[in-house]
Every structure is written in C-alpha cells, then in structure tokens.
Amino acid sequence: MKIGIYGGTFDPVHNGHVIIATSVVEKLKLDKLIVMPAYIPPHKRKKVTNFAKRLEWVEYAFKGIEKVEISGFEGKNKAVSYTFNTISHFEKIYGKLTYVMGEDSFLNIEKWYKYKEFIEKVEVWIYPRYCQKDRLSPILRRLEKYESHIHFAEGIPIVQISSTLIRERAKKRLTIKGYVPEGIEDGVVKMYLNGGVENEDV
Hints:
There is one protein chain. By secondary structure, the protein is an alpha/beta fold. It has a single domain (3-160), classed as Rossmann fold, CATH 3.40.50. It is 36% helix and 15% strand. It is built from eight helices and six strands, in the order βαβαβαβααβαβαα. The protein has helices spanning 15-28, 51-61, 83-94, 103-107, 115-121, 137-142, 163-171, 185-193; strands at 3-8, 32-37, 68-70, 97-102, 122-127, 150-152. It has a six-stranded parallel sheet with strand order 3-2-1-4-5-6. α2 links the parallel β2 and β3 (68-70). The chain is globular, with a radius of gyration of 16 Å.
C-alpha cells in the first residue's frame, strides 16, 4: 500500500486543506492519506486552539472523503509533536511513507527535529503555495544529498487560503464563508472572537 501522512496545526482546518488532500491522493495515487493534526507544534510555541477542538474540526472537514483518514495519534502523549517520532511510529505499521507538506513548511524544515533523518525515512512531496519553485532553490541546494527523497507536486491547485488569514478575519468579524466547511463556520468564528485558545489541552 502507498500511504501518505499530511500533518499540520489545522488552526483552523479550511477548505484549502481539503482541496490539497484530495488532489494529492489523486496525483500520487495514494491508497490512503492520514491527516494528522499536531498536538503542540514545535515551531509554533505560542498557544494554539486546543487539540480536541482542532481534531473535531478536521474530522468534520474530511468526513466521507474517500481514501482520507484522520488520526489523533499526536494528541495521545500530550507533548510536543515531532514529525520524526510520528513517522517512526507509522513506518512500523505501513513501511515506507509519503509525507505531504506545503512549501512554506519546507522552507523551515532545517529547524525540524532530526530533519535529515526524517527526509531519509520518507518521500517528501511539497505542494505549491505561490507557484514559485525558485523560492526553494537555496534550501534544495543545501539538501542536495537528499534530493532523491524530495519532490514537488506540480499540477495541483494553488491554494492561498491560510489558517492565519481565517483567524484574522474572524477576529475582525469579517465573513469566513467559503473559507471553512459550512458546518464549522460558526464555531470557528466564536473560537477566535474569544481569543482563539481553549487552554485545557495546551
């Protein structure tokens, strides 16, 4: 089986995430894509919306989508979510994995825990955010040793919706209709109007 992992904070999940996930499943011919919300992202030490709420939103957003599965694995230990550790766990179950990430995340990969070992373990597929592959050239040169593990998912839709944008719009009482699945829209607005964080999990 060809299994992909799509990790992220998903604070909140939005329709762009859904478009990316379904497009990647088709392009890479994945048997399954596991969407994996982070408990505490190591690169985002400021507080994020509690894990249970983010997981609930993700489950709603991807409900009924073929070949997409949601995992709450990173919430089980209630600790910082290191992708290397998550991959090490799931490769014992599925073998070699495909890891899906955006170009913004890839630009910061050298700050990730055991990033070189992580890249060696997986096939990294980077989805475009700005359709400017040359943005990645400097880091790709530094990671030339691992180039056989790094791929650019060209041909999938360019999605510039961001969770940051949605949070900012909600706080300003601007509509987020069309940005997130309709069924979570009211909850998302209420969350960020109230400061965007429920502290019991983080």
